[in-house]
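LAB NOTEBOOK - FOLDING QUEUE
OPERATOR: T.R.
BATCH SIZE: 2
PURPOSE: Compare the predicted structure-token outputs for two unrelated chains run back to back under identical settings.
PRIORITY: normal
REVIEWER: second-year student, initials M.K.

ITEM 1
FIELD SEQUENCE / FIELD STRUCTURE:
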Amino acid sequence: SNTITTVLNDSDGVYINGGAPASTTAVNNSFLLNTIITQGNSSAGVNLVGSKNTRFESDIFNTSVWNSYGIEMGNGRNETFTNIQIIAPSSDDIRMTEESLYIRNSSFQKTNTTVLSGNLYTQWYAYTNVTNGTVPLPSITVSEFRNTNILLIESKLSNSSGQATLLVTEVNKSSGSNIWYYEPHTINATGELVGNYPNSSTVNFTTTNSTTIHLALAEDLSPPNASFNGPASGPYGSAITMNVTVLDDLRVANVSFR
């Protein structure tokens, strides 16, 4: 946890150079709770060149003058920024070339970014609470479907408090003007195995950003219906097979008696 301030031109707040392409030396660096201020021209808050698996969390990048990007990246791979804030009124918030950059649960101007090559992913969290209306339900499968209910992206089991957190990709921006929005998402919880109806919520994370979703799974209280299938009669003392189909709103069960 530090405050880093630079005042000269060409003076980045944090500069990591592992060469190009991404090397095996500038790997797995982590930064937490830093405030980075640059006041000179061409002075990025963070400049990553050829690094890999860099992690920034809960940091502030404040660049105030021309050509001073909040985040500048070249040939970086799998770089992740979580809970950050970028303030870059005179330059791009983010400018990158090649590979992949993930911005999670963060404050920045998505329209103020330049991707010369590679992929920039904006991601949010879906904090999901699953109950039967009053009591938390553990071990419930919670799933994320992209573009409403088309593509299954991720599934997790709710914990002992009925909670599951899913990571949702809102948008992917690549070179040129290629932008893919993946909204809306449907968050679904299935309770059939414990006798509860499923429930889901459709969310547009472009509007909500990270958000808490409450899914109440109503209990199946209706009695099952049973149908019997077997021979109407048979010789005295002979064995017969009776098939029973038990059907309720959530499941079908087949039972045979002999």
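ITEM 2
FIELD SEQUENCE / FIELD STRUCTURE:
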Amino acid sequence: GHLGLSLATHKCQLYSSNGITADISTLFPPEISREPQGVIVLGTPIGEPGFCLNHWNEYLDNMEQEATALYTVWTDNLQAAFAVFRICVQTKLNHLLKSMPPNSTYAPDIITRATKIIKSSLEGFLGGSHLGDLEHSDSWLQQAYLPPSMGGFGILDPSSLHLITFLAGEVAVHNNLSDLDAAKRLPPRPVPSSLQQAFDSGLINKDQFPTIDHVLSEPHKLQQRLSREHFRQLRLILGSDLNLDRHLNSCSGEA
């Protein structure tokens, strides 16, 4: 152009949720690749359900391979290997949980697989599923989900935290998008429907966040607050087992 700028067509992709019609295609240079199934934007798939499902399965493939390598190769120092798993590997689920809509058709399959990977990885670090106490129940896994202050490992629970994490991520970007709208002199952006539903259903504690404006003013606190509530409820469930409850109290320094 006259400003000396050029379009790097080899870095561009064209996708339309309504399909790439001939009329749309003619508006863009032919050098730009047409992607009828979807595109990856900042590590997040946008497109057809099958396209998104394949992307997240590949994402979990890499995570599973890394976890397996840690407890099968780094056997001379499993404590260090587990620290790497807890800090660097399992936390990759944060991106998935924040980016994948809970109401998508493929979400249940991905969350189920992510949970299985977490469980099998922990079994690997603990010596394998041949250990008898791992087979009787999932109480040990529920304990692993608890924060260290409550005698757990602080491992992410994909199924319980998905809605919470996605909601927190949607709230976190709302203000940034609203600022962009204001700069373009566009009308105010409506509150995300997922936030409104969560607020109306009582998922969000109104003692901590009396109004939605309070939530939007401190979006960084939402996931932590909701996670704490999850852990509190989980502790009540675990407390139904008296022996396990005593063990948790001992681990957390409460007894």
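REVIEWER COMMENT (ITEM 2): The first strand starts at residue 13 and ends at 14.
FOLLOW-UP: none requested
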